Prior knowledge:
- By secondary structure, the protein is α/β, with parallel strands linked by helices.
- The protein is built from 10 helices and 16 strands.
- The model has no long low-confidence stretch (mean pLDDT 94).
Amino acid sequence: MKLFALDASRSFGEGIAAALEVPLARHEERGFEDGEHKARPLEVVRGADVYVVQGLHGDPSQSANDKLCRLLFFIACLRDCAAARVTAVVPYLAYGRKDRRTKPRDPITTRYLAQLFEAVGTDAVVTLDVHNVAAFENAYRCRSVPLDSRRLFAPRLKELVGGDPVVIASPDPGGVKRAQLFRESFERLLGRPVGAAFLDKRRSGGVVSGDLLVGEVAGAVVVVVDDLISTGGTMRRAAEACLAQGAARVVAVAAHGLFTGEAARTIAAPSLARVLVSDTVPPFRLPPSLLQERVEVITAVPLFAEAIRRLHGGGSITALLEG
């Protein structure tokens, strides 16, 4: 097995390498004055089972598109160098939210992204908490592995809720299935009933509307579950609606914390008691004080390491796709 981590995700890759007790394979990345680049392995990969770690979130040094281009070119290079199998390990997968047409002539970017991975010879794509599992799996003809974050957050949530009544809520109708699966897993962990709720939400032209809350939340700790937090507006809106209906406090949970725009101000609002995210996207846009007081980052490294271990060894990964 060869494990590479492109420079933009080297820290995450080093964590995976340490968990697997293997060294990171050496590679070179070089930029050119006009913005072009090249990347190549510095080790023989002929006949090897190769894994490449690269998250696709934008940051000050590289956009999501830059990172995607580098990943695709590197995978293609590995295939040219006769790697037997190449797996893209993508902690955060960009373009996951555009998985269907909501307006005439809309793109289905999730499918186009899958076609790009397939075109360069990717054998499998491993990621965490995609926006729509069915759309993700249907988009890919190569193997697709959507890991589930429930096992990451459930132990910490158990500590936070204690013996209080709990309700798992979706911030919109589209996330009801995700919230339902999370609730079923959390019920098994707690050994007692957990309530369910969801909010109405409509988005048009960037404007979000809808304030209907379905479910009983009075007196309960409400855990609002989503795949990602961008500006935080959806989570704050959900939290305020739950508190207005008598919720004791609200905890937000999302695999990916992008924290764009006015997210720092939104997350600091008193309506959200705590925010849990994974480290698939470093929270570099948030001030340190907010990370200390309000936001907790839980590492997804062991989950990805276990997935790679099982994929390389031919083991079952079914349990990693469930809570």
